[in-house]
Amino acid sequence: MTADLHPRxxxxxxxxRGFEPPLRLADFRLVAFDMDSTLIxxxxxxxxxxxxGRKAEVAAITEAAMRGELPDYAASLxxxxxxxxxxxxxALQQVLDQRLRLNPGVEAFVAACxxxxxxxxxVSGGFxxxxxxVRQRLGIAFARSHVxxxxxxxxxxxxxxxxxxxxxDGAEKRRTLLELASLLGxxxxxxxxxxxxxxxxxxxxxxxxxxxxHAKPAVRERAMVAVNEGGLDRVLxxxxxxxxx
Length: 245
Known about the structure:
Blueprint: E1 8-11, E2 14-16, E3 30-33, H1 44-51, H2 55-66, H3 73-82, H4 89-99, H5 106-115, E4 119-127, H6 128-138, E5 142-146, E6 148-151, E7 154-159, H7 170-184, E8 191-195, H8 201-206, E9 209-213, H9 217-220, E10 225-227
Parallel strand pairs: 3-4, 3-8, 4-5, 8-9, 9-10
Antiparallel strand pairs: 1-2, 2-10, 6-7
């Protein structure tokens, strides 16, 4: 990912930087996606907080973290989780059933990647309660996310420890992408990373193609492709595929 090359708006709301399209989607081996506000239209933790009457407080921390204003992502996550202590599991199910929606163009883009033979990865600082249904719906092969600790039908405000580590922050997203690429025998240059927030920048900077989708300014300014209007499938023509104008 290159920060100093002049961006070009090749179509309204579609900006490229540092390469000349089209590339070939089949030349890539792995595509990694953030989930909240990238694959889906919400920040799940903010919607859970709404059930506790704390959405404004939690959403303010989320927004600052995604803008890159809180350098300690783990601390910001634990602070938000602490505010969710006692929220019933039924509130999570309500978010899943009533609030969670895929973003425009996501299904078409993921399907095109699969059809071209790319391995697919969802790597999220969100929660498996939501990421697993999203993974299954989109047919994504690999996923890494947090597991919420639930006792007596309520959130404890903690996470269940995982073998890979404690928090999916920017460093863990990058490490997961590179680890999976290595297992697949792929180079970082053969990876695509798609995200919207500051914690996506480490994996985006490691990938051969970085895509910012309706992203925060700091992410748009550093991505090789920035989709600022319309759906994620607008990237497909840049990769030799068919998508909307």
